[in-house]
Specification:
The complex is a heterodimer of chains A (89) and B (368). Chain A is an alpha+beta fold and 89 residues long. Chain A has a five-stranded mixed beta sheet. Chain B has one domain: YVTN repeat-like/Quinoprotein amine dehydrogenase (Methylamine Dehydrogenase, Chain H, 7 Propeller), CATH 2.130.10.10. The chains are: A alpha+beta (89), B mainly beta (368).
Chain lengths: 89, 368
Amino acid sequence: MAEVTFTPNLKRHVDCPTVEVEGATVAEVLARVFAANPRLRGYVVDDQGALRKHMVVFIDGQQIVDRDRLGDPVGPTSELYVMQALSGG
Amino acid sequence: MGADTDTLLVSTRKGLFTVTGRGAGARITGASFVGDNVTLALADRRDGAWYAALDHGHFGTKLHRSDDRGATWTEIATPAYPPRPEGLDEKDMWGRQIPWSTKLVWALEPALDADGALWCGTLPGGLFRSDDRGGSWAIVDSLWHHPLRPKWSGGGADQPGIHSICVDPRDPRTVVVGVSTGGVWRTRDAGATWTAHCEGMTNTYSPPEQAGNPEYQDVHRIVQAPGRPEVFWVQHHCGAYRSGDDLASWQPLTIAPSSFGFCVAVHPTDADQAWFVPAQSDQKRTAHGRVVVARTRDGGQTFTQLTAGLPQEHAYDLVYRHAFDLAADGDQLAFGSTTGNLWVTDDQGDRWHTVSQTLPPIYAVRYV
Protein backbone atom coordinates (compact mmCIF):
# COMPACT_ATOMS: atom_id res chain seq x y z
CA MET A 1 0.00 0.00 0.00
CA ALA A 2 1.11 3.53 -0.64
CA GLU A 3 1.92 5.76 2.30
CA VAL A 4 0.55 9.33 2.17
CA THR A 5 1.94 12.11 4.37
CA PHE A 6 0.59 15.65 4.52
CA THR A 7 2.36 18.94 5.15
CA PRO A 8 2.41 19.97 8.83
CA ASN A 9 0.94 23.34 7.80
CA LEU A 10 -2.23 21.58 6.75
CA LYS A 11 -2.56 19.82 10.10
CA ARG A 12 -3.26 23.17 11.74
CA HIS A 13 -6.56 23.31 9.84
CA VAL A 14 -7.64 19.70 9.48
CA ASP A 15 -6.51 16.48 11.10
CA CYS A 16 -4.59 14.48 8.50
CA PRO A 17 -2.24 11.85 9.90
CA THR A 18 -0.09 9.73 7.61
CA VAL A 19 -2.18 6.95 6.13
CA GLU A 20 -1.65 3.82 4.05
CA VAL A 21 -4.08 3.27 1.19
CA GLU A 22 -4.25 1.37 -2.07
CA GLY A 23 -4.43 2.92 -5.51
CA ALA A 24 -2.71 2.81 -8.88
CA THR A 25 -2.76 6.57 -9.49
CA VAL A 26 -2.62 9.73 -7.40
CA ALA A 27 -6.32 10.23 -8.09
CA GLU A 28 -7.18 6.77 -6.79
CA VAL A 29 -5.01 7.14 -3.71
CA LEU A 30 -6.38 10.56 -2.80
CA ALA A 31 -9.97 9.48 -3.49
CA ARG A 32 -9.59 6.82 -0.80
CA VAL A 33 -7.97 9.28 1.58
CA PHE A 34 -10.79 11.80 1.05
CA ALA A 35 -13.48 9.14 1.41
CA ALA A 36 -12.24 8.54 4.94
CA ASN A 37 -11.56 12.24 5.61
CA PRO A 38 -14.03 14.31 3.50
CA ARG A 39 -13.12 17.73 4.92
CA LEU A 40 -9.52 17.28 3.75
CA ARG A 41 -10.51 17.21 0.08
CA GLY A 42 -11.17 20.93 -0.36
CA TYR A 43 -7.81 21.82 1.19
CA VAL A 44 -5.84 19.81 -1.38
CA VAL A 45 -7.83 19.97 -4.62
CA ASP A 46 -10.15 22.58 -6.15
CA ASP A 47 -13.82 22.21 -7.10
CA GLN A 48 -12.88 20.33 -10.28
CA GLY A 49 -10.58 17.90 -8.49
CA ALA A 50 -7.36 19.48 -9.77
CA LEU A 51 -4.47 20.02 -7.40
CA ARG A 52 -4.73 23.50 -5.88
CA LYS A 53 -2.48 26.08 -7.50
CA HIS A 54 0.21 26.14 -4.81
CA MET A 55 -0.05 22.54 -3.72
CA VAL A 56 2.31 19.84 -4.90
CA VAL A 57 2.46 16.05 -4.63
CA PHE A 58 5.66 14.01 -4.67
CA ILE A 59 5.75 10.28 -5.44
CA ASP A 60 8.96 8.66 -4.21
CA GLY A 61 10.70 12.00 -4.45
CA GLN A 62 9.39 12.96 -7.89
CA GLN A 63 6.93 15.79 -8.39
CA ILE A 64 3.78 14.69 -10.20
CA VAL A 65 3.16 15.91 -13.74
CA ASP A 66 -0.61 15.62 -14.15
CA ARG A 67 -1.96 18.27 -11.79
CA ASP A 68 -5.46 18.34 -13.31
CA ARG A 69 -6.42 14.66 -13.46
CA LEU A 70 -3.84 13.30 -11.03
CA GLY A 71 -3.09 10.41 -13.34
CA ASP A 72 0.55 9.85 -12.31
CA PRO A 73 1.12 6.17 -11.46
CA VAL A 74 1.65 5.07 -7.87
CA GLY A 75 3.60 1.92 -6.99
CA PRO A 76 2.48 -0.63 -4.41
CA THR A 77 4.98 0.65 -1.83
CA SER A 78 5.25 4.28 -2.95
CA GLU A 79 5.61 7.16 -0.54
CA LEU A 80 3.51 10.21 -1.33
CA TYR A 81 4.02 13.64 0.18
CA VAL A 82 1.31 16.31 -0.18
CA MET A 83 3.10 19.63 0.31
CA GLN A 84 2.60 23.32 -0.42
CA ALA A 85 4.67 26.29 -1.48
CA LEU A 86 5.72 28.79 1.17
CA SER A 87 4.83 32.39 0.50
CA GLY A 88 3.21 35.47 1.90
CA GLY A 89 3.55 37.23 5.20
CA MET B 1 -32.44 37.39 18.23
CA GLY B 2 -32.57 40.67 16.32
CA ALA B 3 -29.84 43.24 15.90
CA ASP B 4 -27.13 43.86 18.50
CA THR B 5 -25.99 47.31 17.48
CA ASP B 6 -23.27 47.43 20.14
CA THR B 7 -21.32 44.52 18.67
CA LEU B 8 -19.21 44.72 15.53
CA LEU B 9 -17.39 41.95 13.65
CA VAL B 10 -14.11 43.06 12.07
CA SER B 11 -12.59 40.76 9.44
CA THR B 12 -8.87 41.24 8.87
CA ARG B 13 -5.84 39.75 7.18
CA LYS B 14 -4.85 38.20 10.50
CA GLY B 15 -8.07 37.27 12.23
CA LEU B 16 -11.64 38.12 13.16
CA PHE B 17 -12.05 40.66 15.95
CA THR B 18 -15.10 41.53 18.01
CA VAL B 19 -15.70 45.12 19.06
CA THR B 20 -18.25 45.96 21.74
CA GLY B 21 -19.50 49.31 22.99
CA ARG B 22 -20.63 52.53 21.35
CA GLY B 23 -18.69 55.54 20.11
CA ALA B 24 -15.83 56.51 22.42
CA GLY B 25 -16.56 53.42 24.51
CA ALA B 26 -15.99 50.90 21.72
CA ARG B 27 -13.28 48.35 22.53
CA ILE B 28 -11.87 45.18 20.98
CA THR B 29 -13.13 42.41 23.25
CA GLY B 30 -12.63 39.21 21.29
CA ALA B 31 -10.51 37.53 18.63
CA SER B 32 -10.98 34.40 16.54
CA PHE B 33 -8.82 32.76 13.87
CA VAL B 34 -5.79 34.83 14.92
CA GLY B 35 -3.17 34.55 12.20
CA ASP B 36 -5.64 33.49 9.53
CA ASN B 37 -6.99 35.58 6.67
CA VAL B 38 -10.65 36.35 7.43
CA THR B 39 -12.24 38.01 4.44
CA LEU B 40 -15.88 38.42 5.49
CA ALA B 41 -18.24 37.82 8.39
CA LEU B 42 -22.00 37.80 8.85
CA ALA B 43 -24.20 37.75 11.92
CA ASP B 44 -27.57 36.23 11.08
CA ARG B 45 -30.10 38.18 13.12
CA ARG B 46 -32.71 35.43 12.77
CA ASP B 47 -30.95 32.73 14.76
CA GLY B 48 -27.88 34.49 16.18
CA ALA B 49 -25.39 32.47 14.13
CA TRP B 50 -22.13 34.08 13.14
CA TYR B 51 -20.45 33.11 9.86
CA ALA B 52 -16.82 33.74 8.90
CA ALA B 53 -15.17 33.29 5.51
CA LEU B 54 -11.49 32.41 5.58
CA ASP B 55 -9.07 32.44 2.68
CA HIS B 56 -6.21 30.06 3.40
CA GLY B 57 -4.47 30.84 0.13
CA HIS B 58 -2.83 27.54 -0.78
CA PHE B 59 -5.61 25.59 0.90
CA GLY B 60 -8.51 27.59 -0.51
CA THR B 61 -11.51 29.42 0.89
CA LYS B 62 -13.42 27.96 3.84
CA LEU B 63 -16.55 28.87 5.80
CA HIS B 64 -17.07 28.55 9.54
CA ARG B 65 -20.13 29.06 11.76
CA SER B 66 -20.40 29.88 15.44
CA ASP B 67 -23.56 29.36 17.44
CA ASP B 68 -22.10 30.87 20.63
CA ARG B 69 -21.04 34.34 19.45
CA GLY B 70 -17.52 33.42 18.49
CA ALA B 71 -16.54 31.27 21.48
CA THR B 72 -16.30 28.18 19.27
CA TRP B 73 -16.44 27.69 15.51
CA THR B 74 -17.29 24.77 13.26
CA GLU B 75 -16.18 24.47 9.65
CA ILE B 76 -19.18 24.19 7.34
CA ALA B 77 -19.42 23.53 3.63
CA THR B 78 -17.80 25.88 1.15
CA PRO B 79 -19.74 26.68 -2.03
CA ALA B 80 -18.35 24.45 -4.79
CA TYR B 81 -18.86 24.82 -8.53
CA PRO B 82 -20.42 21.97 -10.51
CA PRO B 83 -18.23 19.84 -12.79
CA ARG B 84 -16.97 21.86 -15.73
CA PRO B 85 -18.46 20.38 -18.92
CA GLU B 86 -15.94 18.32 -20.84
CA GLY B 87 -14.48 20.31 -23.73
CA LEU B 88 -16.04 23.62 -22.70
CA ASP B 89 -14.08 26.51 -24.17
CA GLU B 90 -15.10 29.49 -22.08
CA LYS B 91 -12.50 32.22 -22.01
CA ASP B 92 -12.54 35.54 -20.21
CA MET B 93 -11.73 38.85 -21.89
CA TRP B 94 -8.03 38.21 -21.28
CA GLY B 95 -8.16 34.93 -23.19
CA ARG B 96 -7.89 32.69 -20.13
CA GLN B 97 -10.20 29.78 -19.39
CA ILE B 98 -12.75 30.78 -16.76
CA PRO B 99 -12.20 28.60 -13.68
CA TRP B 100 -15.17 26.72 -12.26
CA SER B 101 -13.88 26.77 -8.71
CA THR B 102 -14.51 29.05 -5.74
CA LYS B 103 -11.69 31.55 -5.40
CA LEU B 104 -13.23 33.75 -2.73
CA VAL B 105 -16.42 34.14 -0.74
CA TRP B 106 -17.30 37.76 -1.49
CA ALA B 107 -20.86 38.18 -0.24
CA LEU B 108 -22.90 36.45 2.41
CA GLU B 109 -26.47 37.40 3.31
CA PRO B 110 -29.52 35.79 4.90
CA ALA B 111 -32.09 34.53 2.35
CA LEU B 112 -35.22 35.80 4.02
CA ASP B 113 -37.67 33.49 2.28
CA ALA B 114 -36.75 30.47 4.45
CA ASP B 115 -35.34 29.90 7.94
CA GLY B 116 -31.63 29.16 7.92
CA ALA B 117 -31.30 29.96 4.22
CA LEU B 118 -28.31 31.95 2.96
CA TRP B 119 -27.11 33.55 -0.27
CA CYS B 120 -23.40 33.53 -1.05
CA GLY B 121 -21.63 35.46 -3.81
CA THR B 122 -18.22 34.29 -4.96
CA LEU B 123 -15.33 34.84 -7.30
CA PRO B 124 -15.35 33.83 -10.18
CA GLY B 125 -18.98 34.98 -10.34
CA GLY B 126 -21.18 32.18 -9.03
CA LEU B 127 -24.13 32.85 -6.74
CA PHE B 128 -24.92 30.04 -4.30
CA ARG B 129 -27.78 29.25 -1.96
CA SER B 130 -27.86 27.17 1.19
CA ASP B 131 -31.06 26.05 2.89
CA ASP B 132 -29.36 24.47 5.88
CA ARG B 133 -27.21 27.20 7.47
CA GLY B 134 -24.25 26.46 5.26
CA GLY B 135 -24.35 22.70 5.62
CA SER B 136 -24.57 22.44 1.84
CA TRP B 137 -24.68 24.82 -1.13
CA ALA B 138 -26.10 24.81 -4.64
CA ILE B 139 -25.08 27.15 -7.42
CA VAL B 140 -27.83 29.32 -8.92
CA ASP B 141 -27.71 27.83 -12.41
CA SER B 142 -29.85 30.49 -14.09
CA LEU B 143 -27.33 33.24 -13.37
CA TRP B 144 -24.20 31.13 -13.90
CA HIS B 145 -25.53 30.01 -17.29
CA HIS B 146 -26.80 33.45 -18.33
CA PRO B 147 -25.27 34.27 -21.74
CA LEU B 148 -23.80 37.54 -20.45
CA ARG B 149 -22.09 35.96 -17.42
CA PRO B 150 -18.96 34.81 -19.34
CA LYS B 151 -18.54 38.46 -20.36
CA TRP B 152 -18.13 39.54 -16.75
CA SER B 153 -14.50 40.34 -16.04
CA GLY B 154 -12.05 40.71 -13.23
CA GLY B 155 -10.47 44.00 -12.40
CA GLY B 156 -8.56 44.21 -9.16
CA ALA B 157 -8.90 40.44 -8.92
CA ASP B 158 -8.25 38.03 -11.76
CA GLN B 159 -11.89 36.94 -11.89
CA PRO B 160 -15.22 38.74 -11.56
CA GLY B 161 -17.25 38.35 -8.42
CA ILE B 162 -20.59 38.96 -6.73
CA HIS B 163 -19.93 41.29 -3.82
CA SER B 164 -23.37 42.66 -2.90
CA ILE B 165 -26.65 40.85 -2.28
CA CYS B 166 -29.78 42.89 -1.47
CA VAL B 167 -32.83 40.92 -0.36
CA ASP B 168 -35.91 43.04 -1.01
CA PRO B 169 -37.81 43.87 2.20
CA ARG B 170 -41.06 43.90 0.20
CA ASP B 171 -40.62 40.37 -1.12
CA PRO B 172 -37.74 38.07 -0.10
CA ARG B 173 -37.95 36.27 -3.46
CA THR B 174 -36.72 39.49 -5.06
CA VAL B 175 -32.94 39.71 -4.83
CA VAL B 176 -30.49 42.19 -6.35
CA VAL B 177 -26.81 41.38 -6.79
CA GLY B 178 -23.87 43.59 -7.71
CA VAL B 179 -21.00 42.29 -9.81
CA SER B 180 -17.49 43.61 -10.27
CA THR B 181 -17.26 43.76 -13.16
CA GLY B 182 -20.65 42.86 -14.48
CA GLY B 183 -23.35 45.32 -13.40
CA VAL B 184 -26.53 45.06 -11.33
CA TRP B 185 -28.84 42.05 -11.67
CA ARG B 186 -32.26 41.30 -10.20
CA THR B 187 -34.39 38.21 -9.82
CA ARG B 188 -38.05 38.41 -8.83
CA ASP B 189 -38.52 34.65 -8.58
CA ALA B 190 -35.91 33.59 -6.02
CA GLY B 191 -33.21 33.13 -8.64
CA ALA B 192 -35.05 31.40 -11.50
CA THR B 193 -34.61 34.31 -13.93
CA TRP B 194 -32.41 37.41 -13.96
CA THR B 195 -32.42 40.82 -15.62
CA ALA B 196 -29.64 43.43 -15.76
CA HIS B 197 -30.46 46.94 -14.50
CA CYS B 198 -27.76 49.41 -15.49
CA GLU B 199 -29.65 52.12 -17.40
CA GLY B 200 -27.82 55.39 -16.89
CA MET B 201 -24.55 53.86 -15.74
CA THR B 202 -21.50 54.50 -17.85
CA ASN B 203 -17.84 53.66 -17.67
CA THR B 204 -14.82 55.47 -18.94
CA TYR B 205 -12.63 52.47 -19.60
CA SER B 206 -14.52 51.05 -22.59
CA PRO B 207 -14.87 52.29 -26.15
CA PRO B 208 -17.76 54.82 -26.26
CA GLU B 209 -20.22 52.44 -27.97
CA GLN B 210 -19.77 49.93 -25.15
CA ALA B 211 -19.63 52.35 -22.22
CA GLY B 212 -23.23 51.63 -21.25
CA ASN B 213 -23.19 47.84 -21.61
CA PRO B 214 -24.37 46.21 -18.37
CA GLU B 215 -21.65 43.55 -18.40
CA TYR B 216 -18.98 46.26 -18.41
CA GLN B 217 -20.29 48.22 -15.41
CA ASP B 218 -17.84 47.91 -12.53
CA VAL B 219 -20.23 48.22 -9.61
CA HIS B 220 -18.10 48.32 -6.48
CA ARG B 221 -20.99 48.15 -4.01
CA ILE B 222 -24.78 48.40 -4.04
CA VAL B 223 -27.15 48.89 -1.11
CA GLN B 224 -30.94 49.05 -0.99
CA ALA B 225 -32.77 51.48 1.29
CA PRO B 226 -34.87 49.43 3.74
CA GLY B 227 -37.04 52.45 4.48
CA ARG B 228 -37.99 52.97 0.83
CA PRO B 229 -36.97 49.84 -1.09
CA GLU B 230 -37.32 51.44 -4.52
CA VAL B 231 -34.20 53.46 -3.67
CA PHE B 232 -30.72 52.02 -4.33
CA TRP B 233 -27.27 53.57 -3.94
CA VAL B 234 -24.17 52.46 -5.83
CA GLN B 235 -20.48 53.17 -5.63
CA HIS B 236 -19.21 52.44 -9.13
CA HIS B 237 -15.67 52.40 -10.44
CA CYS B 238 -16.43 55.51 -12.49
CA GLY B 239 -18.64 57.40 -10.05
CA ALA B 240 -21.52 57.14 -7.62
CA TYR B 241 -25.18 56.61 -8.54
CA ARG B 242 -28.65 56.61 -7.03
CA SER B 243 -31.78 54.96 -8.36
CA GLY B 244 -35.10 56.18 -7.01
CA ASP B 245 -37.33 54.25 -9.40
CA ASP B 246 -36.66 50.64 -8.43
CA LEU B 247 -33.69 50.21 -10.77
CA ALA B 248 -35.44 51.54 -13.90
CA SER B 249 -32.69 54.17 -14.16
CA TRP B 250 -29.57 55.45 -12.42
CA GLN B 251 -28.63 59.09 -11.81
CA PRO B 252 -24.97 60.05 -11.28
CA LEU B 253 -23.96 61.84 -8.08
CA THR B 254 -21.28 64.42 -7.50
CA ILE B 255 -19.31 63.84 -4.32
CA ALA B 256 -16.44 65.89 -2.94
CA PRO B 257 -13.58 65.33 -2.62
CA SER B 258 -14.14 62.63 -5.27
CA SER B 259 -16.75 60.22 -6.57
CA PHE B 260 -14.34 57.28 -6.62
CA GLY B 261 -14.35 54.73 -3.85
CA PHE B 262 -15.54 51.28 -2.91
CA CYS B 263 -18.22 51.48 -0.25
CA VAL B 264 -21.62 52.98 0.47
CA ALA B 265 -24.15 52.69 3.30
CA VAL B 266 -27.77 53.83 3.53
CA HIS B 267 -29.86 54.71 6.57
CA PRO B 268 -32.27 51.97 7.71
CA THR B 269 -35.39 54.16 7.63
CA ASP B 270 -34.49 57.39 5.79
CA ALA B 271 -33.70 56.48 2.16
CA ASP B 272 -32.28 59.97 1.50
CA GLN B 273 -29.41 59.53 3.96
CA ALA B 274 -26.32 57.78 2.63
CA TRP B 275 -22.61 57.68 3.31
CA PHE B 276 -19.61 57.15 1.02
CA VAL B 277 -15.86 57.01 1.72
CA PRO B 278 -14.15 58.77 -1.19
CA ALA B 279 -10.74 57.61 -2.31
CA GLN B 280 -8.57 59.81 -4.45
CA SER B 281 -9.11 58.27 -7.87
CA ASP B 282 -8.93 55.15 -9.94
CA GLN B 283 -5.35 56.06 -10.76
CA LYS B 284 -4.38 56.81 -7.15
CA ARG B 285 -6.15 54.42 -4.86
CA THR B 286 -5.55 56.04 -1.50
CA ALA B 287 -7.31 58.54 0.67
CA HIS B 288 -6.69 62.17 -0.22
CA GLY B 289 -3.86 62.36 2.31
CA ARG B 290 -6.75 62.74 4.75
CA VAL B 291 -9.63 60.46 5.62
CA VAL B 292 -13.07 61.78 4.71
CA VAL B 293 -16.56 60.34 4.92
CA ALA B 294 -19.17 62.00 2.67
CA ARG B 295 -22.76 62.12 3.92
CA THR B 296 -25.93 63.19 2.16
CA ARG B 297 -29.26 63.81 3.83
CA ASP B 298 -31.12 65.01 0.76
CA GLY B 299 -31.02 62.05 -1.56
CA GLY B 300 -27.62 62.87 -3.01
CA GLN B 301 -28.26 66.50 -3.96
CA THR B 302 -25.56 67.70 -1.56
CA PHE B 303 -22.83 66.01 0.46
CA THR B 304 -21.12 67.04 3.69
CA GLN B 305 -17.52 66.04 4.34
CA LEU B 306 -17.24 64.47 7.78
CA THR B 307 -13.73 64.69 9.21
CA ALA B 308 -13.96 65.21 12.98
CA GLY B 309 -11.86 62.57 14.67
CA LEU B 310 -10.35 61.33 11.41
CA PRO B 311 -6.68 61.87 10.42
CA GLN B 312 -6.31 64.92 8.19
CA GLU B 313 -2.68 64.71 7.15
CA HIS B 314 -0.48 61.95 5.76
CA ALA B 315 -3.26 59.40 5.84
CA TYR B 316 -3.38 56.98 2.93
CA ASP B 317 -6.04 54.60 4.16
CA LEU B 318 -8.13 52.77 1.60
CA VAL B 319 -11.51 51.42 2.66
CA TYR B 320 -12.63 48.26 0.91
CA ARG B 321 -16.24 47.69 -0.18
CA HIS B 322 -17.23 45.56 2.81
CA ALA B 323 -15.26 47.55 5.37
CA PHE B 324 -18.01 50.13 6.01
CA ASP B 325 -21.26 49.38 7.81
CA LEU B 326 -24.18 51.12 9.40
CA ALA B 327 -25.90 49.71 12.46
CA ALA B 328 -29.61 49.00 12.52
CA ASP B 329 -30.14 51.98 14.87
CA GLY B 330 -29.14 54.34 12.05
CA ASP B 331 -26.74 56.26 14.32
CA GLN B 332 -23.69 54.06 14.54
CA LEU B 333 -21.29 53.53 11.66
CA ALA B 334 -17.95 51.79 11.52
CA PHE B 335 -15.20 51.56 8.97
CA GLY B 336 -11.78 50.02 8.74
CA SER B 337 -8.89 50.54 6.37
CA THR B 338 -6.14 48.70 4.61
CA THR B 339 -3.78 50.47 7.04
CA GLY B 340 -5.46 48.77 10.00
CA ASN B 341 -7.26 51.79 11.37
CA LEU B 342 -10.76 51.24 12.76
CA TRP B 343 -13.16 54.11 13.40
CA VAL B 344 -16.70 54.26 14.77
CA THR B 345 -19.30 56.94 15.34
CA ASP B 346 -22.55 57.00 17.29
CA ASP B 347 -23.85 60.29 15.87
CA GLN B 348 -24.05 59.46 12.18
CA GLY B 349 -20.51 60.61 11.53
CA ASP B 350 -20.47 64.04 13.15
CA ARG B 351 -17.67 62.77 15.39
CA TRP B 352 -15.50 59.68 14.80
CA HIS B 353 -13.64 57.69 17.44
CA THR B 354 -10.53 55.59 16.85
CA VAL B 355 -10.94 52.04 18.09
CA SER B 356 -7.53 50.85 16.90
CA GLN B 357 -4.63 52.00 14.77
CA THR B 358 -2.78 48.71 14.89
CA LEU B 359 -5.10 46.10 13.44
CA PRO B 360 -4.06 44.06 10.39
CA PRO B 361 -5.46 45.23 7.02
CA ILE B 362 -9.23 45.33 7.42
CA TYR B 363 -11.38 43.62 4.80
CA ALA B 364 -14.86 43.86 6.28
CA VAL B 365 -16.85 45.24 9.20
CA ARG B 366 -20.37 44.15 10.06
CA TYR B 367 -22.70 45.00 12.91
CA VAL B 368 -24.31 42.09 14.71
